[in-house]
């Protein structure tokens, strides 16, 4: 397995400097959200061919892969203006990702935390947005990866499989697997069985794994912690990875650079 990180956890830097920092830390690659990671790029609209060439060259020179080009859009929003902007931006980023040699362009399907009624309302809009974006992925022959999150319209294994089936483009529509974004009830979930079911039915779609850990405080607040010190049980996921996809990238999110060595050791043991 390859070890990577969400690049902007190290702060915003010049393109070449950030590539050098990530290489020095020992990563094999990074997930890039350009407006969050690089000086001089505040919005996706700011991206130029020059930026893309500098990124491609800097990461190649530092022997770093770009497994995920992040473009997280509000794809299920009922407001057609918001939704259309998200799809158009995502389509542009599919081309940008191809230019820098990214493995996939990744997105979630909403911005806010939704209740069950809202998720049901947003679901058809989300599915239509994904279908439109995948049409462009097919045209460019690149991969779009969607990330299920339990508070978004794409909130469950059933929802993911439904979208995959309806779109019908498994070569161009893939998945980012983030266990922390799928574990709504850590105190009552049999994680071995839960992850086993996800991996049995959706494992064939996975292009990258987000690795993080957390606990909920007494008020239900999300508290990130070092890997292995929270509620996520990685044993079943580790077993599946070794047996089925030892080529996958493990991408640490919410990395604290001051404690990176401990998290890197945990990831290598996976």
UniProtKB/TrEMBL annotation:
- An example Gene Ontology molecular-function term: isomerase activity
List the Gene3D superfamilies hit by this protein, alphabetically.
Divalent-metal-dependent TIM barrel enzymes
What's one Pfam family here?
AP_endonuc_2
Q: Which domain of life is it from?
A: Bacteria
- Record-annotated membrane-spanning stretches: none
Ordered alphabetically, the record's keywords are: Isomerase
Is Glycoprotein tagged as a keyword?
no
Query: InterPro entries given for it?
Result: IolE/XylAMocC-like, Xyl_isomerase-like_sf, Xyl_isomerase-like_TIM-brl
**What are the top taxonomic ranks of the organism?**
Bacteria, Bacillati, Bacillota, Clostridia, Lachnospirales
In terms of SUPFAM superfamilies, this protein maps to: Xylose isomerase-like
**Species name:** Schaedlerella arabinosiphila
- Stretches assigned to the Xylose isomerase-like TIM barrel domain: 21-270
Name of this chain's protein: Sugar phosphate isomerase/epimerase
Give the signal peptide range: none
């Amino acid at each position: 397995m390859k070890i990577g990180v969400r690049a902007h956890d190290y702060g915003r830097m010049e393109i070449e400097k950030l590539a050098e920092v990530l290489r020095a830390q020992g990563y094999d690659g990074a997930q890039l959200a350009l407006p969050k990671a690089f000086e001089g790029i505040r919005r996706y609209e700011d991206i130029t061919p020059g930026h893309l060439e500098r990124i491609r060259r800097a990461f190649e020179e530092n022997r770093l892969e770009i497994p995920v080009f992040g473009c997280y859009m509000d794809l299920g929003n009922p407001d057609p203006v918001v939704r259309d902007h998200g799809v158009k931006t995502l389509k542009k980023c599919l081309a940008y990702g191809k230019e820098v040699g990214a493995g996939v362009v990744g997105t979630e399907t909403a911005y806010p935390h939704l209740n069950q009624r809202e998720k049901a309302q947003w679901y058809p809009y989300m599915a239509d947005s994904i279908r439109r974006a995948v049409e462009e992925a097919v045209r460019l022959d690149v991969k779009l990866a969607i990330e299920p999150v339990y508070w978004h319209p794409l909130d469950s294994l059933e929802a993911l499989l439904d979208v995959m089936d309806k779109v019908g483009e498994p070569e161009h529509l893939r998945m980012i697997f983030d266990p922390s974004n799928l574990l709504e009830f850590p105190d009552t979930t049999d994680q071995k069985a839960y992850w086993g079911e996800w991996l049995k039915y959706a494992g064939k779609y996975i292009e990258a794994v987000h690795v993080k850990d957390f606990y909920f405080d007494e008020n239900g607040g999300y508290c990130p912690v070092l890997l292995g010190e929270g509620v996520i049980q990685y044993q079943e996921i580790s077993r599946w990875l070794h047996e089925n996809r030892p080529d996958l990238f493990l991408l640490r999110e919410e990395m604290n650079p001051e404690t990176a060595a401990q998290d890197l050791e945990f990831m290598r043991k996976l």
